[in-house]
């Protein structure tokens, strides 16, 4: 049974339309997440890819309940957590942890590393005594290769490098023993030479602990390295989902095809193919009734503007595109 | 002769704790019609180097040595008014995050016209015509000149600042991280525009980036910068296929590729040195799995190896052998946190 199930998840933000607008009664919404569904088995990992503004970070925040969904369900270990509040939500947070994008902002600059790490233990009432908690912190720091841990206890965030800070953030997330880890662009703020170290560390730690992991990234190369399953998002919906290798080597959806083709390769011998779609994603404000990608799609058909395609199985993956259906 | 020739350029920043040696004797050159990619991690001095080239260093920074020759004339020896004859007219710069510096309350076209009139000496009508021409050149409809910056997407804004850089028909454009903030599809299209412009206008390009795949995509030559120095340079294909400097070898192993499913990424252990007190020897020695005693004492010079290739490494003559061991050696160093014994020299 999947540990995490997301079912037709939605998050709509009302637009402030001013006094006149509200009198007329025309409420408009930004459809940040518009019907996202997927399931993750225990110990599995998935990458959520897409351009900025596609709703991938909003999806992550909904799953962690940093935001409350407007519609749809999120089931974690069988229980719906979409409307959790109070003690129930606190208990869920111990199960589901977040690794933030920017380690420079994720840690309180006025807290020492020890203090910042003790905080989640105190909040969740973990550890029999103060000594026990400090020992747990030391062990957690050691696991992310910050050795010897005592050397980092009394340091402040500004005294550490970006790579070290991100290790602290990862250690802090794992400290409360979660079973789900969501990482939003975990290395995009780090330099190339230290990225690989943080990625390898996350891969080892999550595998060893059998953690269910969701990586959010715009970088398909990173997702290929980290994830067995990939979901590609466009304008608040998943347009293609399946095994990573299949999605990157044989992309089906025209958007995935463009996204994969646009990634430059570090090997100058491999020529980059041309990308035929127009630049710039439309805002998720006036969603067309049909396929959200129709306006930019080089293979658009008449049906695409009328009927919204649903995810359907095509050669081992799921694709939301009329090219692969009988609808036309 | 090279269009731009930078030799042993050094730049210092004043700080509370004494000078920070941001650029320490960097040398590179861009030939007419070629594109050079300057790659390096943040803090390696690549942006400082670019700004020093056209004399627009921030307050507190000053050039302490070296030469910047354009067609043989050393810009650093010229009086400020004379440098103006080169700035933007011969060498134009697209600064980092330039697209976010557009004035939000002025139409994009008005900003371009005003700049061209005040700084470029064009007439108002001439500038207006030129702006339309430039917009077409970078792939924007001239009608968009009437829009305000918030009405343009990120890619369009980046195209607009590239257009402005081209206004006075420079021979060389310096572009500092021109596609970093853009989404991958837009990035791809802006890169393609840059490549088309190079051909159409016979432009030379100095592209500054941390992303080696962007360099592989767009540039003929590459210069790898580390801790204020150029450690390796040469034709892109040759440098990436057969790096001679261990830092370049390490970067190749640390960079994920979308099209390679079997790869294993290897980090470069450690962090760049503090440039307030740069090490006496090679700045990379601390992170280098192949360092020998000499590396700690003596900073290697950038030495030519023929075919336009240069590397600053005491063991560059053994590069072929080091390359074979690089992934394994960096891996071991990351695991053990200690420099490994270098493989025996032949």
Largest sheet, spatial ordering of strands of chain B: 6-7-8-3-9-10-12-11
Main beta sheet of chain A: strand number and arrangement? 8 strands, mixed
**Highest-level CATH class of chain A:** Alpha Beta
Q: What distance separates the N and C termini of chain B?
A: 38 Å
Mean of the pLDDT scores of chain B? 90
Rg on CA atoms of chain B, Å: 21 Å
**Which residues of chain A sit in consecutive blocks of at least 5 with pLDDT less than 50?**
none
**What is the H/E string of chain A?**
EHEEHEEHEHHHHHEHEHEEHHEE
Helix content of chain B: 25-40%
Number of strands of chain B: 12
Please, what is the average pLDDT of chain A? 90
Give me the CATH fold name of chain A.
Rossmann fold
CATH superfamily of chain A: P-loop containing nucleotide triphosphate hydrolases
The largest interface is: A-B, 46 and 46 residues
Helix and strand pattern of chain B: EEEHEEHEHHHEHEHEEHHHEEH
Q: Spans of chain B with pLDDT under 50 lasting ≥5 residues?
A: 340-346
Write down the Rg of chain A: 21 Å
CATH A-level architecture of chain A: 3-Layer(aba) Sandwich
Task: Give a written overview of the molecule.
The complex is a heterodimer of chains A (328) and B (346). Chain A is 34% helix and 22% strand. Chain A is α/β, with parallel strands linked by helices and 328 residues long. Chain A has a single domain, classed as P-loop containing nucleotide triphosphate hydrolases (Rossmann fold), CATH 3.40.50. In chain A, the strands form two sheets. An eight-stranded mixed beta sheet of chain A has the order 6-7-8-3-9-10-12-11, with helices on both faces. A four-stranded antiparallel beta sheet of chain A has the order 2-1-4-5, with helices on one face. In chain A, strand 7, helix 9 and strand 8 form a beta-alpha-beta unit. In chain A, helix 6 (130-143) packs across helix 8 and helix 8 runs parallel beside helix 9 (192-208). Chain A is globular and about 70 Å long. The model of chain A has no long low-confidence stretch (mean pLDDT 90). With 346 residues, chain B is an alpha/beta fold. Among the domains of chain B are: 99-169, no CATH class; 242-336, no CATH class. In chain B, strands 6-7-8-3-9-10-12-11 form an eight-stranded mixed beta sheet, with helices on both faces. In chain B, strands 2-1-4-5 form a four-stranded antiparallel beta sheet.
